[in-house]
Write a structure and sequence with these properties.
about 260 residues; binds nicotinamide-adenine-dinucleotide
Length: about 260
């Protein structure tokens, strides 16, 4: 099972987990669209990954909450490579507050990036996948698709919601050979997590070391962060799996923080 010449769109892939997934796919010969907020960042990553090959990448400027921008980005991919085989809806942010202090604007912003982003990109890709009779849609969930943590009401709500969306895509897409699955990582040390360490220390009134060892990794089997490479390997499995046998699923990759 490999991704040679498969056309893959990955949102939020200028850096972090998305970039690592792009790297893994390109190592396997895929053609990858790096979609992110700023063209400069997306193109820089695309150029760096193309230089390593054997696959190729292009940069796309895309705010996943903007329907016109999403549709234009997917159209660029179709104009460039003529099809779309894999969508990884990965773009995401984190905002932490107690519920009673959570600004409504921040709540709506977070839900929009995670949920509207997954919906709009899926909606734009499905007609092309249906036409081809195959496709793989991967939504980036989290252990927070399964578990709750204090201060993360918007994030936990959004990540639980993605499980529902993936299950509906699986049911509607099956007749067209389109499958959908969710990756649920534990804490991965990316800029998104680095930012949370001092924020949570302040909100919870504990040291940064306690945030890492007790709050983030306290329930893991070995006090280790999951890596971007770990997550990319699961994305590769979901992207390359050939049949509807693997659809509507969520896979937790978290050093045993959450076991099901
Ligand atoms: N890092 C973790 O511990 C962890 C754990 C579980 C799940 N996740 C999920 O993995 C995904 C990636 O997280 P990360 O840690 O790599 O984050 P990151 O902050 O390192 O990267 C996120 C990327 O998304 C982009 N982005 C943000 N808003 C966007 C928008 N509106 N449109 C397009 N792009 C946008 C950013 O520019 C950035 O390049 C997120 O969905 C996150 O919730 C992360």
């Amino acid at each position: 099972m490999n991704l040679k010449d498969k056309v893959c769109i990955i949102t939020g892939s200028a850096r972090g987990i998305g970039r690592s997934i792009a790297e893994r796919f390109i190592t396997d010969g895929a053609l990858v669209a790096i979609a992110d907020l700023r063209m400069g960042d997306a193109q820089k990553t695309a150029d760096e990954l193309t230089a390593t090959g054997p696959g190729k990448a292009i940069g796309l400027e895309m705010n996943v909450t903007d329907e016109a921008a999403v549709n234009a980005g997917i159209q660029t991919v179709i104009d460039t490579w003529g099809k779309v085989d894999v969508l990884v809806s990965n773009a995401g942010i984190q905002i932490v507050h107690k519920i009673e202090d959570f600004p409504f604007g921040d709540w709506k912003k977070l839900l929009s990036i995670h949920l509207d982003g997954a919906f709009l990109t899926t909606k734009a890709c499905l007609p092309h996948m249906y036409k081809a009779g195959s496709g793989s849609i991967i939504l980036m969930g989290s252990v927070h698709s399964k578990e709750a943590s204090p201060l993360k009401s918007a994030y936990v709500t959004a990540k639980h919601g993605l499980l529902g969306l993936a299950r509906v895509i699986s049911k509607e897409g099956a007749a067209h050979g389109v499958r959908a699955n969710v990756i649920c990582p534990g804490f991965v040390k990316t800029p998104l997590v680095e930012k949370q360490i001092p924020e949570q220390a302040k909100e919870l009134g504990i040291s940064e070391a306690d945030v890492v060892n007790n709050v983030m990794l306290g329930e893991t089997v070995d006090k280790e962060f999951t890596t971007v490479e770990d997550v990319a390997e699961i994305a590769h499995l979901f992207a390359s799996f050939p049949t509807n046998a693997l659809t509507g699923q969520s896979l937790v990759v978290s050093h045993g923080w959450f076991m099901e």
